[in-house]
From TrEMBL:
Organism: Cuscuta europaea
InterPro entries: At4g02000-like
Name listed for the protein in its UniProt record: DUF4283 domain-containing protein
Length: 106
């Protein structure tokens, strides 16, 4: 169960299944299930922007930054960034590409 909660984004018959750990004293009807955590792959990022600062700016553009894949920014070059973001599922996904200024200026 820990893996399911930590790794997140589970689908059942192509529908998002949101899970949240609750404590014994929690009231289930008062638990908010409006936020989902996603692993996002960001492709075609220039080598100079393959760093944690850029990952944070990208994720904050998409949703809220949580973390990035460990060892992603070591000396080897990766084809994409893998970053984790939390998003309000009541809002539509952003389409299109990032502006260059998002990476450079935040």
């Amino acid at each position: 169960m820990r893996h399911v909660l930590d790794e997140g984004l589970w689908l059942f018959e192509r529908n998002l299944l949101l899970l949240k750990e609750i404590k014994a004293e929690d009231i289930p009807l008062q638990i908010s299930l409006n936020v989902a955590e996603f692993w996002v792959q960001v492709h075609d990022v220039a080598y100079d922007f393959m760093n944690l600062g850029s990952a944070r700016r990208i994720d904050n553009y998409i949703g809220n930054f949580i973390n990035s894949h460990e060892n992603q920014f070591d000396e080897k070059w990766e084809a994409y960034m893998r970053i984790r973001v939390s998003m309000d599922i009541r809002r539509p996904l952003k389409k299109g590409t990032l502006r260059k200024g998002v990476l450079a200026n935040g």
